[in-house]
Amino acid sequence: MIDPYPGAVTEPSGPTPADPTETTAPTPPRLKIGIVLPPPGDDPRAWLADGATFEAAGADALSVDCGTELDPVPLAAALAAVTYRTTLLVRIAEPVPDRTQQTLALLGRTRLTLVTDDVDSGEWLAVPAPEDRDAWRATLTDAIERGFGGVLVPADPRMVDLLRNPDEPGDRRDLLLAQG
Known about the structure:
Strand 5, helix 4 and strand 6 form a beta-alpha-beta unit. Helix 1 packs across helix 2 (about 70-80), helix 1 (about 45-55) runs parallel beside helix 5 and helix 2 (about 70-80) packs parallel to helix 3. The longest helix has 14 residues, at about 45-55. The protein has one domain (about 30-165). The chain contains 5 helices and 6 strands, in the order E-H-E-H-E-H-E-E-H-E-H. The chain is an alpha/beta fold. It has a 6-stranded parallel beta sheet with strand order 4-3-2-1-6-5.
């Protein structure tokens, strides 16, 4: 066989053996991030788009209080239809019939939970929207140290960037538009 690259140094293919003297720090527990969507208001389509945006940014859950003006069941079904991965926690005033629950379970692929009271406070910590990246890191560290499984944060445009780029510095030159 002829060597097509005589004298070339090649790297071994495949995984390299781990250095037994190298130690890795334990991975910190991953905290779930839930976004609390406000009631839909006058434009439920924009509200649904916001829910899909937060999901695409990486939110683990969407917590929804539909308010008293609109029926929460069709809104929950619509939110389940425009999302595919997040857990949906939908607050309702009173229990719904089993048939409705089964329909929502099918639409939400078991991601949708109807709650008639507060979300389990042992798992989720309600926190305010952070002012900046440092405040966000401090909030997450505090929640982990207190033993919570996740945080519920009010919907805020800054959360989209924090979810998409959790470790990025504040100077986001990639968001600047080129001017020609």
